[in-house]
Amino acid sequence: MPQREHYLFVCTNRRADEDPRGSCTARGAEEVHQALKDQISRRGLAKLKARVCASSCLDQCSSGVTILVEPDHCFYGRVTVADVPEIVDGIVQGLRVKRLLLTEQDLAKG
Ligand code: FES
């Protein structure tokens, strides 16, 4: 398989319900991961443009669901299934979805 232009790492970490940190899976990460895979495939982007990968914890739990986009090296946070079309549009256009980018404050909180 050729190297894709972008790799989207979706945190699908799951913690026990009573863990105060919560987890991205508890906030809908598996649905986000699947919706991204579906749309990337449906739009013909899977072979060359983008690969969607499930990731372990990205250490940005307070902002979950989190996605790390490489090589762009940016984090999206608080992502829901409703955000997926805009994220895929951004991949196609080479643009970041600014409203989803984690801020320096978010990143410092972890
Ligand atoms: S549980 Fe998703 S970033 Fe930690």
Q: What secondary-structure arrangement, pairings included, does this model have?
A:
Elements: E1 6-11, H1 29-42, E2 50-55, E3 67-70, E4 74-76, H2 84-93, H3 104-109
Parallel strand pairs: 1-2
Antiparallel strand pairs: 1-3, 3-4
Helix pairs in contact: 1-2
The structure holds FE2/S2 (inorganic) cluster.
Description:
- This protein is α+β, with helices and mostly antiparallel strands.
- Helix content is 27%, strand content 17%.
- The chain has helices at residues 29-42, 84-93, 104-109; strands at residues 6-11, 50-55, 67-70, 74-76.
- The longest helix is centred in the N-terminal third of the chain and has 14 residues, at 29-42.
- The model has no long low-confidence stretch (mean pLDDT 96).
Any idea of the CATH class?
Answer: Alpha Beta
Q: Which structural class matches the secondary elements?
A: alpha+beta
Order of secondary-structure elements: EHEEEHH
Bound molecules: FE2/S2 (inorganic) cluster
What is the domain total for the residues? 1
